[in-house]
């Protein structure tokens, strides 16, 4: 008889009365045979705890004062008995075979490679479920192939916390979740895992449904803070890779392209901040030229001649003249 590793499905919950039942049901409904479901209620003020209690001994749960998402994730980490972890935010849910597909994907690698070379996270693409008036809309977000983990991190292509299966010991060894990190929380942990020499791998199976339903989530209510935290992660990654002699041209460009994308967004509300970001880019990589959707061909042509500030001022004029037109994105 083949023993399968225990997987702990870990659910932090704060004021998720509307969603928590489906979330827990999707965890209990996983086809993977050897699992436990643990919920930590982070001081909810709505009826979330009553819903959690209604599952009886089918789950383990506890509650306490509100301390934030990463504190709840660390408490779940302490409670987990599994070798592998499935984190699941209370307003998201899993497709029934999510855990089993990713654990099957782990097994062949675990048998053929040395323990130190095993992946510590197995990711899958996630489906965004957008809620507004009427019927929710879904969109699959694939993970780009052909890039190394550092490029995926720099470009913010590594998916949300619940999209992967995490090796418990790797999180512990990396120092667990940073309880002082208010946003970009999984990306900050991804960074420390990579700095520790770990590797990630991608499973093509889609299994997480990630809901977008509120403007009051951690990543939406203070976008300037998100920008600053993301820039800090990009800087830490660049400095680490440079110190190790591992800052390849692709990695460097990816870091600066990410900074550039933030600068273009920031320009709309804080031009001085956007220009400081651009100064950082040019110190890091003189002669940097942006690409992809954030810098269409016409934008790049003007950028090469006039630089960031003048190009953005021209883009502002075009937006003003063509307000409401799709052509505003061509510069």
Count helical runs: 11
Structural class: alpha/beta
| The CATH C-level class name of the largest domain | Alpha Beta
Helix fraction? 40-55%
- CATH homology group of the largest domain: Spore Coat Polysaccharide Biosynthesis Protein SpsA, Chain A
Strand content: 5-15%
Number of strands: 11
Morphology: globular
| Main β sheet profile | 7 strands, mixed
Q: Round the mean pLDDT to the nearest integer and report it.
A: 91
Order of helices and strands: EHEHEHEEHEEEHEHHEEHHHH
Radius of gyration: 21 Å
Strand order of the largest sheet: 3-2-1-4-9-6-10
Low-confidence parts: 109-115
Give the termini distance in whole angstroms.
Answer: 62 Å
List the helices and strands and how they pair.
Blueprint: E1 7-13, H1 20-28, E2 35-41, H2 48-53, E3 60-63, H3 69-79, E4 84-87, E5 93-94, H4 98-112, E6 121-123, E7 126-130, E8 137-141, H5 149-154, E9 164-167, H6 168-173, H7 185-195, E10 200-202, E11 208-212, H8 223-243, H9 249-267, H10 271-284, H11 297-321
Parallel strand pairs: 1-2, 1-4, 2-3, 6-10, 7-11
Antiparallel strand pairs: 4-9, 5-11, 6-9, 7-8
Structure described in brief:
The protein is α/β, with parallel strands linked by helices and 331 residues long.
């Amino acid at each position: 008889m083949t023993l399968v590793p225990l997987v702990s499905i870990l659910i932090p919950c704060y004021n998720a009365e509307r969603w928590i039942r489906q979330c827990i049901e999707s965890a209990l409904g996983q086809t993977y045979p050897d699992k436990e479901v643990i919920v930590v209620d982070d001081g909810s003020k709505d009826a979330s705890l009553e819903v959690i209690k209604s599952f009886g001994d089918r789950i383990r749960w506890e509650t306490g004062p509100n301390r934030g998402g990463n504190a709840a994730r660390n408490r779940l980490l302490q409670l987990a008995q599994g070798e592998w972890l499935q984190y699941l935010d209370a307003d998201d849910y899993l497709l029934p075979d999510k855990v089993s597909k990713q654990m099957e994907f782990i097994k062949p690698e675990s048998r053929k490679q040395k323990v130190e070379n095993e992946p510590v996270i197995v990711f899958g693409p996630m489906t965004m479920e957008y809620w507004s008036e009427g019927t929710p809309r879904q969109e699959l977000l694939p993970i780009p192939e052909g890039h190394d983990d550092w490029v995926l991190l720099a470009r913010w292509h590594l998916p949300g916390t619940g999209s992967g299966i995490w090796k418990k010991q790797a999180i512990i060894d990396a120092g667990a979740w940073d309880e002082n990190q208010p946003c970009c929380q999984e990306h900050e942990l991804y960074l420390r895992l990579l700095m520790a020499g770990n590797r990630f791998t991608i499973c093509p199976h889609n299994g997480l449904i990630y809901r977008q339903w509120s403007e009051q989530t951690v990543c939406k209510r203070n976008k300037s803070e998100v920008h600053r935290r993301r820039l800090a992660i990009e800087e830490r990654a660049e400095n680490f890779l440079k110190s190790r002699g591992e800052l390849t041209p692709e990695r460097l460009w990816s870091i600066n392209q990410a900074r550039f994308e933030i600068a273009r967004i920031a320009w709309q509300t804080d031009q001085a901040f956007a220009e400081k970001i651009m100064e950082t880019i040019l110190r890091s990589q003189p002669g940097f030229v942006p690409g992809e959707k954030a810098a269409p061909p016409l934008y790049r042509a003007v950028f090469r001649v006039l630089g960031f500030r003048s190009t953005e001022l021209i883009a502002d004029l075009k937006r003003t003249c063509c307000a409401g037109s799709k052509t505003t994105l061509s510069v």
